Give the backbone structure.
Amino acid sequence: RLFGLNDMLTVKISPETVVIYRDDWEAPHEVTISVAVDENTPRGGVRAEVTHEIEACDEAFMQLASENAAALTRQFDVSLVKPEVDRNVNFPLKVVCWGLCLINICVAITFFFWTLINRQHPVVKASQTIFLAMIALGGVVSSLTILAITFDDEGDDEGLAATGEYLPANYACMAMVWLYSLGFVITLAPLFAKTWRLAKIVNRKDLKRFSVPSYQVFAICLFLVVVDAVIILTWTLLAPLKYYRINVAFKEDPTSPGGLVPVESIGKCRTDGNEVPFIVVLVCFHLGVLLYGNYICAQIKVLKHTVLSEGKH
Protein backbone atom coordinates (compact mmCIF):
# COMPACT_ATOMS: atom_id res chain seq x y z
CA ARG A 1 0.00 0.00 0.00
CA LEU A 2 1.07 3.60 -0.66
CA PHE A 3 0.53 6.07 2.17
CA GLY A 4 -1.56 9.13 1.13
CA LEU A 5 -1.54 8.60 -2.63
CA ASN A 6 -3.49 5.39 -3.14
CA ASP A 7 -5.84 6.93 -5.70
CA MET A 8 -3.15 8.81 -7.66
CA LEU A 9 -0.66 6.06 -8.51
CA THR A 10 -0.93 2.74 -10.30
CA VAL A 11 1.10 -0.06 -8.72
CA LYS A 12 1.83 -3.38 -10.44
CA ILE A 13 3.52 -6.37 -8.74
CA SER A 14 5.02 -9.07 -10.93
CA PRO A 15 4.81 -11.93 -10.29
CA GLU A 16 1.93 -11.67 -7.86
CA THR A 17 2.49 -15.20 -6.55
CA VAL A 18 5.80 -16.98 -5.88
CA VAL A 19 5.96 -20.73 -5.18
CA ILE A 20 8.87 -21.63 -2.88
CA TYR A 21 9.85 -25.21 -2.23
CA ARG A 22 11.59 -26.37 0.92
CA ASP A 23 14.96 -26.67 -0.79
CA ASP A 24 14.71 -23.10 -2.15
CA TRP A 25 13.75 -21.40 1.13
CA GLU A 26 17.14 -19.78 1.63
CA ALA A 27 17.51 -18.71 -2.01
CA PRO A 28 16.62 -15.11 -3.04
CA HIS A 29 13.41 -14.62 -4.99
CA GLU A 30 12.83 -11.49 -7.06
CA VAL A 31 9.53 -9.63 -7.27
CA THR A 32 9.20 -6.45 -9.37
CA ILE A 33 7.06 -3.59 -8.06
CA SER A 34 6.25 -0.95 -10.70
CA VAL A 35 4.80 2.48 -9.85
CA ALA A 36 3.43 4.28 -12.90
CA VAL A 37 3.68 8.08 -12.93
CA ASP A 38 2.62 10.71 -15.43
CA GLU A 39 2.75 14.50 -15.70
CA ASN A 40 -0.09 14.87 -13.19
CA THR A 41 1.64 12.87 -10.44
CA PRO A 42 2.60 14.99 -7.40
CA ARG A 43 6.30 15.60 -7.04
CA GLY A 44 8.54 14.15 -4.34
CA GLY A 45 8.53 10.73 -2.71
CA VAL A 46 6.06 8.36 -1.14
CA ARG A 47 6.35 5.66 1.52
CA ALA A 48 5.32 2.20 0.32
CA GLU A 49 4.67 -0.92 2.37
CA VAL A 50 4.57 -4.50 1.12
CA THR A 51 3.21 -7.37 3.20
CA HIS A 52 3.99 -10.98 2.24
CA GLU A 53 0.97 -13.26 2.49
CA ILE A 54 2.11 -16.85 2.97
CA GLU A 55 0.07 -19.92 2.19
CA ALA A 56 1.52 -23.34 3.02
CA CYS A 57 0.49 -26.85 3.90
CA ASP A 58 3.08 -27.09 6.62
CA GLU A 59 1.35 -26.09 9.89
CA ALA A 60 4.67 -25.73 11.71
CA PHE A 61 5.88 -23.30 9.04
CA MET A 62 2.70 -21.28 9.24
CA GLN A 63 3.02 -21.03 13.00
CA LEU A 64 6.60 -19.80 12.65
CA ALA A 65 5.50 -17.23 10.06
CA SER A 66 2.74 -15.84 12.29
CA GLU A 67 5.17 -15.43 15.19
CA ASN A 68 7.50 -13.39 12.96
CA ALA A 69 4.86 -11.36 11.14
CA ALA A 70 6.99 -8.20 11.35
CA ALA A 71 9.63 -9.91 9.24
CA LEU A 72 7.05 -10.40 6.50
CA THR A 73 6.46 -6.66 6.09
CA ARG A 74 8.84 -4.48 4.10
CA GLN A 75 8.85 -0.69 3.83
CA PHE A 76 10.67 1.34 1.21
CA ASP A 77 10.66 4.81 -0.34
CA VAL A 78 9.51 5.41 -3.89
CA SER A 79 10.93 8.45 -5.67
CA LEU A 80 8.43 9.87 -8.14
CA VAL A 81 10.08 11.09 -11.32
CA LYS A 82 7.78 12.73 -13.82
CA PRO A 83 8.33 12.08 -17.53
CA GLU A 84 9.48 15.03 -19.61
CA VAL A 85 6.45 16.47 -21.39
CA ASP A 86 6.49 19.24 -23.99
CA ARG A 87 3.81 21.59 -22.65
CA ASN A 88 3.93 23.91 -25.70
CA VAL A 89 4.53 26.97 -23.51
CA ASN A 90 6.44 29.66 -25.40
CA PHE A 91 7.81 32.07 -22.79
CA PRO A 92 9.47 34.48 -25.30
CA LEU A 93 6.10 34.83 -27.05
CA LYS A 94 4.51 35.60 -23.69
CA VAL A 95 7.03 38.39 -23.13
CA VAL A 96 6.20 39.87 -26.55
CA CYS A 97 2.48 39.77 -25.73
CA TRP A 98 3.06 41.43 -22.37
CA GLY A 99 5.10 44.14 -24.08
CA LEU A 100 2.34 44.83 -26.62
CA CYS A 101 -0.23 44.93 -23.81
CA LEU A 102 1.89 47.46 -21.92
CA ILE A 103 2.21 49.63 -25.05
CA ASN A 104 -1.57 49.62 -25.58
CA ILE A 105 -2.25 50.55 -21.97
CA CYS A 106 0.36 53.32 -21.99
CA VAL A 107 -1.07 54.81 -25.20
CA ALA A 108 -4.62 54.73 -23.80
CA ILE A 109 -3.54 56.34 -20.51
CA THR A 110 -1.56 58.98 -22.42
CA PHE A 111 -4.60 59.97 -24.48
CA PHE A 112 -6.75 59.95 -21.35
CA PHE A 113 -4.58 62.55 -19.65
CA TRP A 114 -4.12 64.47 -22.90
CA THR A 115 -7.90 64.76 -23.08
CA LEU A 116 -8.11 66.06 -19.52
CA ILE A 117 -5.34 68.62 -20.12
CA ASN A 118 -6.93 69.86 -23.36
CA ARG A 119 -10.56 69.62 -22.28
CA GLN A 120 -11.15 73.31 -23.07
CA HIS A 121 -10.04 72.91 -26.69
CA PRO A 122 -12.99 73.39 -29.08
CA VAL A 123 -12.53 69.99 -30.74
CA VAL A 124 -12.26 68.18 -27.38
CA LYS A 125 -15.30 70.04 -26.03
CA ALA A 126 -17.29 69.13 -29.13
CA SER A 127 -16.28 65.47 -28.72
CA GLN A 128 -17.14 65.63 -24.99
CA THR A 129 -14.40 64.85 -22.53
CA ILE A 130 -16.25 62.16 -20.58
CA PHE A 131 -16.91 60.09 -23.69
CA LEU A 132 -13.33 60.36 -24.87
CA ALA A 133 -12.26 59.14 -21.42
CA MET A 134 -14.61 56.16 -21.76
CA ILE A 135 -13.02 55.24 -25.08
CA ALA A 136 -9.57 55.30 -23.44
CA LEU A 137 -10.90 53.15 -20.58
CA GLY A 138 -12.30 50.65 -23.08
CA GLY A 139 -8.89 50.45 -24.71
CA VAL A 140 -7.27 49.61 -21.38
CA VAL A 141 -9.86 46.93 -20.54
CA SER A 142 -9.58 45.32 -23.98
CA SER A 143 -5.78 45.28 -23.78
CA LEU A 144 -5.88 43.42 -20.47
CA THR A 145 -7.34 40.49 -22.40
CA ILE A 146 -3.78 39.75 -23.54
CA LEU A 147 -2.74 39.03 -19.95
CA ALA A 148 -5.61 36.57 -19.50
CA ILE A 149 -4.79 34.82 -22.77
CA THR A 150 -1.15 34.26 -21.79
CA PHE A 151 -2.03 32.83 -18.36
CA ASP A 152 -1.68 29.04 -18.10
CA ASP A 153 -1.18 26.25 -15.56
CA GLU A 154 2.53 26.85 -15.01
CA GLY A 155 2.08 26.85 -11.22
CA ASP A 156 -0.06 23.72 -11.16
CA ASP A 157 2.22 21.31 -9.26
CA GLU A 158 -0.63 18.96 -8.37
CA GLY A 159 -1.84 18.37 -11.95
CA LEU A 160 -5.29 19.82 -11.30
CA ALA A 161 -5.57 21.17 -14.86
CA ALA A 162 -5.91 17.60 -16.15
CA THR A 163 -9.44 17.57 -14.72
CA GLY A 164 -10.18 21.28 -15.10
CA GLU A 165 -9.80 22.01 -11.39
CA TYR A 166 -6.91 24.51 -11.46
CA LEU A 167 -8.85 27.61 -10.37
CA PRO A 168 -6.35 30.39 -11.33
CA ALA A 169 -6.32 29.22 -14.95
CA ASN A 170 -10.10 28.71 -14.91
CA TYR A 171 -10.59 32.31 -13.79
CA ALA A 172 -8.26 33.48 -16.57
CA CYS A 173 -10.36 31.62 -19.16
CA MET A 174 -13.53 33.49 -18.22
CA ALA A 175 -11.59 36.74 -17.73
CA MET A 176 -10.71 36.65 -21.44
CA VAL A 177 -14.40 36.86 -22.31
CA TRP A 178 -15.21 39.53 -19.72
CA LEU A 179 -12.27 41.80 -20.58
CA TYR A 180 -12.53 41.62 -24.36
CA SER A 181 -16.31 41.91 -24.58
CA LEU A 182 -16.72 44.67 -22.00
CA GLY A 183 -13.73 46.53 -23.41
CA PHE A 184 -15.31 46.42 -26.86
CA VAL A 185 -18.66 47.74 -25.61
CA ILE A 186 -17.11 50.44 -23.40
CA THR A 187 -15.16 51.68 -26.44
CA LEU A 188 -18.08 51.52 -28.84
CA ALA A 189 -20.88 52.80 -26.59
CA PRO A 190 -19.72 56.47 -26.46
CA LEU A 191 -19.37 56.66 -30.25
CA PHE A 192 -22.77 55.01 -30.69
CA ALA A 193 -24.49 57.25 -28.14
CA LYS A 194 -23.01 60.49 -29.48
CA THR A 195 -23.93 59.55 -33.04
CA TRP A 196 -27.46 58.72 -31.93
CA ARG A 197 -27.71 62.16 -30.27
CA LEU A 198 -26.65 63.91 -33.49
CA ALA A 199 -29.11 61.85 -35.52
CA LYS A 200 -31.96 62.87 -33.20
CA ILE A 201 -31.10 66.53 -33.78
CA VAL A 202 -30.39 66.36 -37.51
CA ASN A 203 -33.51 64.36 -38.34
CA ARG A 204 -35.93 66.87 -36.82
CA LYS A 205 -38.30 68.32 -39.37
CA ASP A 206 -39.01 71.60 -37.62
CA LEU A 207 -36.58 74.41 -36.86
CA LYS A 208 -37.42 74.70 -33.17
CA ARG A 209 -34.65 74.63 -30.58
CA PHE A 210 -34.03 71.03 -29.54
CA SER A 211 -31.52 69.27 -27.34
CA VAL A 212 -30.87 65.73 -26.12
CA PRO A 213 -30.02 65.68 -22.39
CA SER A 214 -26.69 64.15 -21.43
CA TYR A 215 -28.36 61.69 -19.08
CA GLN A 216 -30.10 60.08 -22.07
CA VAL A 217 -26.75 59.59 -23.77
CA PHE A 218 -25.26 58.11 -20.60
CA ALA A 219 -28.29 55.85 -20.27
CA ILE A 220 -27.57 54.40 -23.72
CA CYS A 221 -23.96 53.70 -22.77
CA LEU A 222 -25.03 52.10 -19.49
CA PHE A 223 -27.69 50.02 -21.23
CA LEU A 224 -25.21 48.58 -23.72
CA VAL A 225 -22.70 47.73 -20.99
CA VAL A 226 -25.36 46.12 -18.77
CA VAL A 227 -26.75 43.98 -21.60
CA ASP A 228 -23.25 42.78 -22.46
CA ALA A 229 -22.49 42.02 -18.79
CA VAL A 230 -25.76 40.10 -18.33
CA ILE A 231 -24.96 37.85 -21.32
CA ILE A 232 -21.46 37.08 -20.03
CA LEU A 233 -22.67 36.61 -16.45
CA THR A 234 -25.24 34.07 -17.63
CA TRP A 235 -22.48 32.28 -19.55
CA THR A 236 -20.26 32.32 -16.46
CA LEU A 237 -22.94 30.82 -14.24
CA LEU A 238 -24.32 28.19 -16.61
CA ALA A 239 -21.34 27.05 -18.66
CA PRO A 240 -18.10 28.56 -17.31
CA LEU A 241 -14.90 28.03 -19.23
CA LYS A 242 -12.29 25.84 -17.55
CA TYR A 243 -8.63 25.31 -18.31
CA TYR A 244 -7.75 21.74 -19.30
CA ARG A 245 -4.29 20.26 -19.87
CA ILE A 246 -4.74 17.71 -22.68
CA ASN A 247 -2.16 15.11 -23.75
CA VAL A 248 -1.76 15.03 -27.53
CA ALA A 249 1.30 12.78 -28.08
CA PHE A 250 2.52 9.62 -26.37
CA LYS A 251 5.36 7.12 -26.36
CA GLU A 252 5.40 3.46 -25.45
CA ASP A 253 6.24 2.46 -21.88
CA PRO A 254 5.48 -1.10 -20.72
CA THR A 255 5.42 -0.04 -17.04
CA SER A 256 2.60 2.49 -17.51
CA PRO A 257 -1.14 1.83 -17.65
CA GLY A 258 -2.06 1.17 -21.25
CA GLY A 259 1.61 0.97 -22.15
CA LEU A 260 1.88 4.69 -23.03
CA VAL A 261 3.20 7.85 -21.37
CA PRO A 262 2.53 11.42 -22.57
CA VAL A 263 5.32 13.37 -24.25
CA GLU A 264 3.39 16.43 -25.44
CA SER A 265 0.38 18.32 -24.09
CA ILE A 266 -1.54 21.52 -24.75
CA GLY A 267 -3.72 23.76 -22.59
CA LYS A 268 -7.21 24.77 -23.71
CA CYS A 269 -10.18 26.65 -22.33
CA ARG A 270 -13.25 24.45 -22.53
CA THR A 271 -16.64 24.22 -20.91
CA ASP A 272 -18.38 21.19 -19.49
CA GLY A 273 -21.63 22.54 -20.93
CA ASN A 274 -22.45 24.20 -24.26
CA GLU A 275 -20.96 27.63 -24.86
CA VAL A 276 -22.21 28.01 -28.45
CA PRO A 277 -25.55 29.72 -27.58
CA PHE A 278 -23.76 32.35 -25.50
CA ILE A 279 -21.20 33.02 -28.24
CA VAL A 280 -23.96 33.38 -30.82
CA VAL A 281 -25.96 35.80 -28.64
CA LEU A 282 -22.84 37.85 -27.83
CA VAL A 283 -21.74 38.07 -31.47
CA CYS A 284 -25.25 39.00 -32.62
CA PHE A 285 -25.45 41.72 -29.98
CA HIS A 286 -22.09 43.22 -30.99
CA LEU A 287 -22.88 43.02 -34.71
CA GLY A 288 -26.33 44.50 -34.12
CA VAL A 289 -24.87 47.52 -32.35
CA LEU A 290 -22.26 47.97 -35.08
CA LEU A 291 -24.76 47.70 -37.95
CA TYR A 292 -27.28 50.04 -36.33
CA GLY A 293 -24.46 52.46 -35.56
CA ASN A 294 -23.49 52.47 -39.25
CA TYR A 295 -27.11 53.10 -40.18
CA ILE A 296 -27.17 56.13 -37.89
CA CYS A 297 -23.90 57.38 -39.39
CA ALA A 298 -25.52 57.33 -42.82
CA GLN A 299 -28.29 59.54 -41.46
CA ILE A 300 -25.87 62.26 -40.32
CA LYS A 301 -23.64 62.28 -43.39
CA VAL A 302 -24.57 65.96 -43.85
CA LEU A 303 -22.15 66.66 -40.95
CA LYS A 304 -19.21 64.83 -42.51
CA HIS A 305 -17.20 68.04 -43.04
CA THR A 306 -17.80 69.45 -39.56
CA VAL A 307 -16.05 68.95 -36.22
CA LEU A 308 -19.13 67.13 -34.98
CA SER A 309 -18.78 64.30 -37.47
CA GLU A 310 -17.47 61.07 -35.99
CA GLY A 311 -19.22 58.76 -38.40
CA LYS A 312 -15.94 57.65 -40.02
CA HIS A 313 -14.75 56.41 -36.62
